[in-house]
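Class prep. Sample record?

___
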Amino acid sequence: MKADVKYIFECQDGFRFVRDTFEEIERVFDENVKALVDVAGEGDRISVTKDFGNHLSPKAHISAQIDGTWKFYDLYSEVTPIQ
């Protein structure tokens, strides 16, 4: 079976990155984690979980509380069978 795989990294209130390769979405994810860590100050919280063991279905989540506001980010893949 052939399939089209899209890798998605998004935040609940807006941005959405869609990439064609695992390496591209991994780079986007890591850049966003670094940006959040750089912005976070004392008392802010960032929690990162990721499971990149299977490159066809990676999963990752970021919970960040910065300046009292929580943001949640998710990375996942969408697989569409090609007939």
In short: The CA atoms of residues 63 and 72 lie 5 Å apart. The mean pLDDT is 93. The longest strand covers residues 69-82. The helical segments are 22-39.
